[in-house]
Amino acid sequence: MIRFASMGATVQTRLFGSLRTLRPPNAEAFPVEPDATIEDLLGDLRIPAGKVHLTFLNGVKVDQDALVSDGDTIGIFPPLGGG
Description:
83 residues; mainly beta; Ubiquitin-like (UB roll); five-stranded mixed β-sheet; 1 helix; 24% strand
């Protein structure tokens, strides 16, 4: 379900690796609802939670139940492979 911010709150979304192709055109000011979590944001961005390995809120690693606020920067990383 896509929700739209009623109070004008926005976050900056940064998608990395294979998730870059899902970057929305308004990634620098993506609207969020009050009391939205990272999980809510992933839903609004249409990114399946299983495609996300790490999330950062203002540079600090957080779980997907972390609340986001106006002006936050959210980093979203997929599982990384290599050898």
